[in-house]
Every structure is written in structure tokens, then in C-alpha cells.
Specification:
Layout (H helix, E strand, L loop, with lengths): L2 H4 L2 H11 L3 H14 L5 H4 L6 E2 L8 E7 L2 E7 L5 H14 L4 H6 L4 H4 L8 H28 L1
Antiparallel strand pairs: 1-2, 2-3
């Protein structure tokens, strides 16, 4: 199975975009994406305790997902003190929001390596970055399980 079989087109484009950048440019790009992370919608902020905390992150980072017309919609709450994780979360939002839970689950766990982030981030930070997708998949799994139990 090739990458194009398991990575949706928007995410493929982002991987290619990141690979075209040198190390310093990759970090700058993450900072640009960090500034683009949408604020937490009020209706979700009112139920912040229902969000999934990404335990691997030193700063408090949370993710929430909803299923709308069979497609995942994610939101993140990440502090500005963690621009790398904010940038990566925003990048994944751009690449994965609107995909089905099954597509989210099929995304390879090593996409951060495919982006070349291992060349610019220390191992501990890579573990945190990997946890973002892992937790998105955890939420997608819940929707798949709920769908199966409803049938």
C-alpha cells in the first residue's frame, strides 16, 4: 500500500509542502500554522471538561471531535506557549478535518517523519507531536465503535 492509498489528498499536499522546506523553514512554517489554529468555539469551551487531554504534552493541550454527516470535525485547545504543538495541530486540522473516521484511522502514524520534522525537532518533542494524531485516532475510534453498535 502506498502513501497515497492511506493519506488523504489535503494531507499529502501538506506533507509535500513541509518536505520542500529546509529545517529553519519547517520550524517557521509550524509557527505560521500555530497562528492559524482557530480559537475554541464557545459551545465547546463551555464543556471543556469533555475534551480529550493529550497527556503526552507538557502544556495542557486538548482535542475534541464531532461527527457531522459522517465526517470528523476536530478542534484543539492549545496554549500559545506551545507553538510547535499548536502548529502541528493546525496542520492536521487543515489536512484531516472533514474526513471520515475510517480515513483518519488509516493515516500512517509516522506522518510527522514523512514531513521531515525528525530533522528539526528533538525526540521528546516528536513523541508529543505523534500523540496529537494518536489522540485524533482515539476519537475517530469512538465514532466507529458507536456506529457499529448502532447497527
Amino acid at each position: 500500500m502506498t502513501m497515497t492509498d492511506t493519506v488523504p489528498p489535503r494531507l499529502q499536499a501538506l506533507i509535500a509542502e513541509m518536505n520542500a522546506l529546509n529545517g529553519h523553514e519547517k520550524l517557521e512554517s509550524l509557527l505560521v500554522y500555530a497562528d492559524k489554529l482557530p480559537p475554541l468555539p464557545d459551545e465547546i469551551a463551555m464543556h471543556h471538561d469533555d475534551m480529550l487531554q493529550i497527556q503526552e504534552c507538557i502544556s495542557p493541550v486538548f482535542v475534541h471531535a464531532e461527527l457531522q454527516d459522517g465526517r470528523m470535525q476536530f478542534v484543539f485547545d492549545a496554549p500559545s506557549e506551545g507553538p510547535t504543538i499548536r502548529g502541528y495541530a493546525a496542520l492536521l486540522l487543515k489536512g484531516l478535518n472533514g474526513e471520515t473516521p475510517e480515513i483518519i484511522l488509516a493515516v500512517p502514524n509516522d506522518i510527522h517523519y514523512r514531513m521531515g520534522l525528525h530533522r528539526v525537532l528533538p525526540p521528546q518533542r516528536l513523541n508529543v507531536v505523534a500523540a496529537v494524531l494518536t489522540n485524533m485516532k482515539r476519537l475517530a475510534t469512538r465514532f466507529v465503535a458507536a456506529s457499529k453498535s448502532a447497527h
